[in-house]
Structure formats: structure tokens, C-alpha cells
């Protein structure tokens, strides 16, 4: 998946979220005046959720063939290139999902005067729409479309001033698609997008330029109105100022401005929002690059009632040349899609890592693991998706020069360990509601469907063993773990059901990079086999299911030596399991249960034959003022109770634990002091979040949700410093968090914003990666006070608790 936002102000495409695959940076082959690049790869991918659904997940194997060809030339006055990229996907079981995507591209520039050059280019693509798209029409086959784009511009340099003007055209043509009820019309999505604008810059010095830019855009649809009778034509503009340049190993640009879009349909309000853009590259060393991006845009949608959605995306990717013949990468991105005109906000996260090994100068094998998650305040549209693939490829150019030193093993060996864990188990439940012959029976006024999230926190413990090899500072290995756990949730009402986790067996691959003090930062991906006990009862009918479910997991962590062969580790793992049905003999239709688990683990490792580091690391100064930024993932669990009426039986009191996952992002600052090997600090934090859950009984029933929107807090940290470069700490503090609770039943509708105080406790690990910079992994539990919500016809009570794992970058002064 690759989502690209064009920006004619800079004349480049800014990648804001991508499954980034590391590849060799080699010179093309010269054939006369032409530079030729050619490559082909064949991959076998396993996906556990090919339709990106919350429940009723379907897995499959996909064979992916990707050939590409490029030609380029460069002369005294200009340069140009043309190319073609083809991707063929073949599904083993669900052949209706097969696709062929082709892109043709061309670009060039010519200098017409010593200070002026013209540039232009374009591409034309035959593609298919991803099943995760909110605009996907659920056809029997994926929606196919054609996209063509072209751009033309001029760049002038006049002393310290630069002037850039240009224009973009993008045309979309969507094909109709068959469904189980007939043909779905997609002609109302066809459109032409036009952008014209310019940028004026002034060079403050040879490496720094400030600039201002403005862009006008028009979005014209082929159909006057869409199938829902909305006029979707619009005009808009982008205005911004920024700075572009290089400071030491960091280069890129940052822009701040405003985005505006006005729509022809009078039912759509104009959209005006702050524009945030950053595209930065940090050259850590000659073999490692960290790229970060932040982008905001107003995007088109055909979601009924919505004029558009505002997409804010932040991402980071790490590319590392382990050796001339070995490459590695890792990436993470998070997007907020806030729909304008309807009450819906989606949050999408993408994460993964990949390895590539050239066993011949032109031929490689690779492995990749990718994870995607969408969380939403709209019921039933969330999903988790794991995919893993193996790839074999070849390229025309050499990956590394002849005689270059290839990868050498610097260490290998077995290890064993044990760990304790804490986390949350969430079960997404989807099923029919209503009984035969009653008000909820077939054709009855309350017949419908329930979509809801349940869950709770729980602890676990396990043992592990593995084998790893080391290539210079890069580590790769395989690990087996056995776990006993006790997370459990129950829903007690006229229907009583619940899930508890018992034991787990897992096999994972681990890949990471060593930093100062021989500490290891790593990612992990694996498969888990877990025993779940599920029960379901209504009236005198009861059923139980005790079965093992397979799940795919993705995690990250850090490991650091203590003494001898002993090391400690802290890691965070998210696992999505295959769903299953339970409920018979309660009726002809069962409920679908889909379990998702997040877990933080703290462990002790012993490596057989481990050797001490060649030299002691330079001491890191943990004293003084520090500031940082962090992002996190966690689960909100809520004890929810309240009176309920049952037209088919006696009234009852609901007692349930609602649960849902979400993301956070924020900043922190503190002051710490070292006392020998001990450390103490006081810290303040502020974060925004979307950790929430919702329940929806459609079409007649209760619809309610709770969301944590923000947090501010103070805490004390105390810990122990290992190897003069790793801080292992605990924390305790108080926070204030803003919660929003929405409740709707019948004609009763209420929304309530409330600030709750909470006690936050936990701990983490802080690892030095540069002279004044650390990476930290922090896990906390927060217990909040309870409150009640009066919705006129009744009262519900809510009692929140949250587990949260965060990764932060800290800078000390």
C-alpha cells in the first residue's frame, strides 16, 4: 500500500504512509546514452484478513509478481526518464480478488536559460481499490479504476531568490462493479482535479531557504450529482510558509499554512483547517537513514452526508544497510481521517519491517511483515490485518560493487528466559438480536444486529527460548514462548456471555539493531496458538466453546545486558486472532467473536556463551532538564452497569465490561538527577488520544460510546542506571483526562464531556542512542474514578481503566 500526496509547491511527491521496502541503492546500467534499470520479484504473501473486516475474517495466500523497467538519460541541458511498473496478484482461494495493476510514468526537465528550467511529467495507472477503503462498494470483485496525472512547471533562480510555478492535472475513472443485488454504479466517482500555484523562496545561506507558496485547486465530477443526489464539485486553496534546508545530519522542509475547500452543494459546509507538512531525513551514519513525515490534506469521499475527510498523517521509516549485501527497514505511520459533515473519525495505523539479502550481486531473497489497524467511532468498520511474505527477486544492476566485504557473522547462540506480562483482551462481538415470535423476532420492531466491543485487563507469565545470529550490529533470530494468562471479561444481562484466555504457544522472528551499551532495539512478528474459553447463555439454554485460535502478532521492544550472560527486556505485542461463532442452541444465527490482545512484557534472558562488549560505552548524562515526544497504543476498559427492560421477560440489571483500543500522541518534559547508579525525576506530560469503545444495536436499540480525548499529568520517576547508558525505572503519578460519553436510546439522546482524575503507575526502559538522545519504552495502567450518566429514561454507571504503551524520543539539555 502506498498513499501519496502531490505537492506542486515543492515539485515532489511526499510519501505520507507506505509499506516501505528497503532496496539496494546501486548505479543503473549504461547502454549507450541510456541508463537502464530493470527488476522482477515473485512473492508469496499470507494475509489473515483479505477483506479488512472487523468480524468474519477470511485469510488467503496471494502470489505477487512485480516486474519493472526504467530508462533514463541526461545531457548538458536536461534529463528525462520513462518507466513501467506492473503488479499481478493471484489469490489461492478467492480468485475473484485477483488483480493486475500497471503504471506508466515519464518525467523530464530542460534548462532553457542559465537561470531557468522547465520540468514536467506524468503517469497513467490501471489500479484496483483496496478493500479497506471506506468508499469501497462491496462488489463481488474489487473496484477497478484508471488514474492519469500530468504536471508542468518552471523554476527560476535569481541570486538568493527562487521562483517556482506549475500545475497538476489528475483524472479518475472508476469502473462499475457487480454485486449480489445487481450492478453498482461508480460513474458518480469519476472526476478531474486541477491544481495551479507557485512558490517564492529566499536563501538565507547556502543550506537554508525560507519560502511562501499558494495553490488553487478545482475538483470537477463528471456527474452533476452522485447516486445520493449530492453535488460534489468544489474549489479550494492552500496557503503556507515554511523553511527548507539542512542542519548537520538532518535535511528537509517544514511548512505551516491553511487549507480551504468550498463545495457546490449547499448542504456541505466549507472546510478550513490548519495545514501541517514536514518531510525530514536524518542521516544517522552512512549506512542508516531515518525519514519522518507529517502531512495534512482535504480528500474526496462518497460517504453519504460527508463532503470530504481531513487526513492528518505522521510517519517514520528507518532504512539500514547492515552490510553491502544485507538491508533492513522498519516503518510506522498513523493517520486521522476526520469526516466533514458526518460524525465519524477513523484512525489508521500501519507498521512493519523487512529484510533483504543479496546472495548473488543481482539476486536476493527477502522477508516482510506488515500490520494494519483501523479504529473508528463508527461501529462495525474497525479491522486488524496481519500479512507476512517471502520474496525472491533479481535486478539488472549490481547491489554491491565487486570485492565489497559481505556480511559476516559476529555472534550466534541459544538463549532462554522468563517474563511477566500485563495487558488487555478485547473481543469484538457481532450478532443478531431479537427472538422468534417476540418484539425482536422476524419482522419485529426491534429485530436487528449488535456490534460491540468487550474486554478487560489481565496478567500473564511465560517462559521462552530462542536462537539468534548477529551480523555486525544487526541481530536476527527465532523464538518460542509458552504462556499462562488470566484476562477475562463477562457480560451479565438477559444474555450472559464471556471469554477468558488460558494458555498460549507462540513462535516469532526477531530482528533488531544494537545501540550504545550493547542494548538492542528490535521488532518481532509471529504466530500464536491460544486457548480461549467462551461461554454463552440465554434463559435455560447454555453453550460453551473451549478451543484454540490462531493469531498473528507484531511487537517491538528493547533488550539490554545486566551482567554475565543475563539481559533484561521490555516489549509490547499486539495479536489479532481468527474469529469464531458461538451461541447455538440459542437460535439459527450465532454471534461472531473476534479477539484482539495487547500485552506489555518484562523479562529476564540468559544467553549461553555470551561475550562481554568489546569496550565499555561512553557514559550517558541522565542529569538535568529533558523534553520529548511520544506515541502510544493501549486499551480502555470500562465497567458498565445499568437497569434494562426486556419485553420478552423480566427486567434486569446489565453488568458488562466494555473495551476498545486506540492511539495517543503527546509531549513530556522533566528534570532528573543521578545519585550514583540511582535516578530520580519529576515529569509533566500532555497527550491527545482516541482510545474508545462503542456499542451499537441497530436499527432500534441502544447506541452509546466512551472516548478518552486528552490527558495532562504529573509523575515521579525513580530507577536504576545500567552500563551507564540504560535507565530502568518505575513511575507513579496523577493525571486528568477528558472523556466524552454519547448515549442514545429511543428518543433519549445525551452527550457528556467530563474530566476525570486518575492514578497512573507503571515503568519503562530508557536507552541512549546518541550523546544527548534516548529512546524510551513506557508502560502504564491508569485507574479513573466512576461516574453516572442520566439519559432520562434510565441511568448507567461507568468506571474506566486504561493500559497504555508508549515509545518516546527524549532530548536532554
Description:
- This protein has 813 residues and is mainly beta.
- The two termini are 40 Å apart.
- It has an 18-stranded antiparallel barrel.
- It is globular, with a radius of gyration of 28 Å.
Helix and strand arrangement:
Blueprint: E1 2-7, E2 12-18, E3 29-31, E4 34-47, E5 60-74, E6 78-91, E7 99-113, E8 116-128, E9 144-158, E10 161-174, E11 177-179, E12 182-184, E13 191-205, E14 208-221, E15 234-247, E16 250-263, E17 271-285, E18 288-299, E19 308-323, E20 326-340, E21 345-360, E22 363-376, E23 383-395, E24 409-433, E25 448-471, E26 474-485, E27 488-492, E28 495-514, E29 520-538, E30 541-563, E31 566-577, E32 580-582, E33 591-607, E34 624-644, E35 652-675, E36 678-698, E37 703-722, E38 726-745, E39 748-768, E40 773-790, E41 795-812
Antiparallel strand pairs: 1-2, 3-4, 4-5, 4-23, 5-6, 6-7, 7-8, 8-9, 9-10, 10-13, 11-12, 13-14, 14-15, 15-16, 16-17, 17-18, 18-19, 19-20, 20-21, 21-22, 22-23, 24-25, 24-33, 25-26, 25-36, 26-28, 27-28, 27-35, 28-29, 29-30, 30-31, 31-33, 32-33, 34-35, 34-41, 35-36, 36-37, 37-38, 38-39, 39-40, ...
| Distance from first to last alpha carbon | 40 Å
Number of strands: 41
Overall geometry: globular
Radius of gyration: 28 Å
Feature tags:
disordered N terminus, 18-stranded antiparallel β-barrel, single chain, 0% helix
Short description:
Helices cover 0% and strands 74% of the residues. By secondary structure, the chain is an all-beta fold. The N terminus is likely disordered.
Amino acid at each position: 500500500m502506498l498513499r501519496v500526496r502531490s505537492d506542486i509547491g515543492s515539485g515532489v511527491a511526499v510519501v505520507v504512509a507506505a509499506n516501505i521496502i528497503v532496496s539496494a541503492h546501486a548505479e543503473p546500467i549504461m547502454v549507450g546514452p541510456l541508463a537502464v534499470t530493470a527488476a522482477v520479484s515473485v512473492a508469496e504473501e499470507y494475509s489473515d484478513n483479505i477483506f479488512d473486516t472487523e468480524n468474519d475474517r477470511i485469510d488467503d495466500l496471494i502470489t505477487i509478481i512485480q516486474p519493472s523497467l526504467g530508462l533514463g538519460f541526461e545531457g548538458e541541458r536536461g534529463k528525462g526518464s520513462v518507466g513501467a511498473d506492473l503488479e499481478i496478484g493471484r489469490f489461492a482461494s478467492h480468485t475473484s480478488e485477483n488483480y493486475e495493476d500497471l503504471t506508466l510514468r515519464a518525467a523530464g526537465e530542460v534548462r532553457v536559460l542559465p537561470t531557468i528550467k522547465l520540468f514536467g511529467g506524468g503517469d497513467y495507472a490501471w489500479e484496483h481499490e483496496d478493500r479497506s477503503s471506506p468508499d469501497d462498494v462491496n462488489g463481488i470483485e474489487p473496484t477497478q479504476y484508471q488514474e492519469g496525472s500530468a504536471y508542468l512547471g518552471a523554476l527560476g533562480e535569481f541570486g538568493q531568490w527562487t521562483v517556482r510555478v506549475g500545475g497538476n492535472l489528475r483524472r479518475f475513472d472508476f469502473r462499475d462493479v457487480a454485486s449480489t443485488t445487481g450492478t453498482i454504479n461508480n460513474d458518480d466517482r469519476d472526476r478531474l482535479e486541477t491544481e495551479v500555484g507557485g512558490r517564492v523562496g529566499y536563501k538565507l545561506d547556502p543550506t537554508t531557504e525560507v519560502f511562501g507558496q499558494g495553490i488553487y485547486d478545482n475538483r470537477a465530477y463528471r456527474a452533476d450529482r452522485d447516486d445520493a443526489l449530492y453535488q460534489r464539485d468544489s474549489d479550494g486553496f492552500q496557503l503556507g510558509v515554511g523553511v527548507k534546508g539542512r542542519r548537520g545530519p538532518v535535511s528537509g522542509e517544514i511548512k505551516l499554512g491553511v487549507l480551504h475547500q468550498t463545495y457546490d452543494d449547499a448542504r456541505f459546509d466549507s472546510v478550513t483547517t490548519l495545514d501541517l507538512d514536514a518531510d525530514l531525513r536524518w542521516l544517522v551514519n552512512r549506512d542508516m537513514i531515518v525519514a519522518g513525515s507529517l502531512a495534512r490534506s482535504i480528500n474526496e469521499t462518497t460517504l453519504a452526508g460527508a463532503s470530504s475527510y481531513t487526513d492528518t498523517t505522521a510517519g517514520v521509516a528507518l532504512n539500514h544497510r547492515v552490510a553491502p549485501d544485507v538491508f533492513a527497514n522498519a516503518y510506522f505511520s498513523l493517520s486521522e481521517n476526520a469526516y466533514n459533515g458526518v460524525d465519524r473519525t477513523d484512525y489508521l495505523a500501519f507498521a512493519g519491517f523487512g529484510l533483504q539479502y543479496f546472495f548473488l550481486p543481482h539476486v536476493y531473497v527477502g522477508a516482510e511483515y506488515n500490520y494494519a489497524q483501523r479504529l473508528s467511532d463508527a461501529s462495525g468498520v474497525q479491522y486488524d490485518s496481519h500479512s507476512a511474505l517471502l520474496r525472491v527477486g533479481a535486478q539488472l544492476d549490481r547491489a554491491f560493487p565487486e570485492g565489497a566485504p559481505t556480511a559476516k557473522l559476529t555472534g550466534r547462540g541459544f538463549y532462554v528466559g522468563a517474563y511477566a506480562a500485563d495487558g488487555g483482551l478485547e473481543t469484538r462481538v457481532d450478532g443478531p438480536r431479537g427472538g422468534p415470535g417476540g418484539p425482536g423476532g422476524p419482522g419485529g420492531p426491534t429485530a436487528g444486529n449488535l456490534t460491540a466491543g468487550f474486554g478487560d485487563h489481565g496478567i500473564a507469565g511465560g517462559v521462552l527460548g530462542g536462537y539468534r545470529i548477529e551480523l555486525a550490529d544487526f541481530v536476527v533470530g527465532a523464538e518460542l514462548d509458552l504462556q499462562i494468562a488470566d484476562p477475562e471479561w463477562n457480560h451479565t444481562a438477559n444474555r450472559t456471555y464471556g471469554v477468558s484466555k488460558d494458555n498460549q504457544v507462540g513462535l516469532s522472528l526477531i530482528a533488531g539493531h544494537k545501540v550504545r551499551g550493547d542494548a538492542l532495539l528490535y521488532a518481532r512478528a509471529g504466530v500464536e496458538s491460544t486457548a480461549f474459553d467462551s461461554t454463552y447463555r440465554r434463559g435455560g439454554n447454555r453453550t460453551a466453546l473451549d478451543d484454540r485460535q490462531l493469531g498473528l502478532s507484531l511487537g517491538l521492544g528493547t533488550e539490554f545486558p545486566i551482567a554475565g550472560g543475563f539481559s533484561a527486556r521490555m516489549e509490547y505485542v499486539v495479536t489479532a486472532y481468527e474469529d469464531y461463532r458461538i451461541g447455538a442452541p440459542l437460535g439459527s444465527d450465532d454471534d461472531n467473536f473476534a479477539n484482539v490482545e495487547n500485552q506489555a512484557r518484562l523479562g529476564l534472558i540468559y544467553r549461553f556463551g555470551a561475550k562481554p562488549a568489546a569496550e565499555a560505552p561512553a557514559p550517558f548524562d541522565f542529569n538535568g532538564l529533558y523534553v520529548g515526544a511520544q506515541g502510544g497504543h493501549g486499551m480502555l476498559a470500562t465497567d458498565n452497569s445499568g437497569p434494562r427492560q426486556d419485553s420478552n421477560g423480566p427486567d434486569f440489571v446489565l453488568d458488562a465490561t466494555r473495551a476498545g483500543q486506540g492511539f495517543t500522541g503527546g509531549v513530556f518534559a522533566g528534570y532528573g538527577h543521578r545519585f550514583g547508579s540511582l535516578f530520580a525525576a519529576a515529569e509533566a506530560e500532555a497527550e491527545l488520544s482516541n482510545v474508545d469503545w462503542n456499542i451499537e444495536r441497530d436499527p432500534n436499540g441502544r447506541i452509546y460510546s466512551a472516548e478518552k480525548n486528552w490527558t495532562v499529568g504529573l509523575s515521579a520517576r525513580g530507577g536504576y542506571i545500567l552500563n551507564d547508558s540504560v535507565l530502568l525505572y518505575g513511575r507513579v503519578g496523577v493525571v486528568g483526562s477528558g472523556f466524552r460519553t454519547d448515549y442514545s436510546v429511543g428518543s433519549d439522546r445525551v452527550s457528556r464531556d467530563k474530566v476525570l482524575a486518575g492514578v497512573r503507575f507503571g515503568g519503562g526502559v530508557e536507552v541512549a542512542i546518541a550523546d544527548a538522545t534516548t529512546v524510551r519504552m513506557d508502560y502504564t495502567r491508569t485507574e479513573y474514578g466512576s461516574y453516572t450518566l442520566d439519559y432520562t429514561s434510565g441511568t448507567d454507571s461507568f468506571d474506566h481503566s486504561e493500559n497504555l504503551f508508549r515509545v518516546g524520543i527524549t532530548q536532554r539539555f
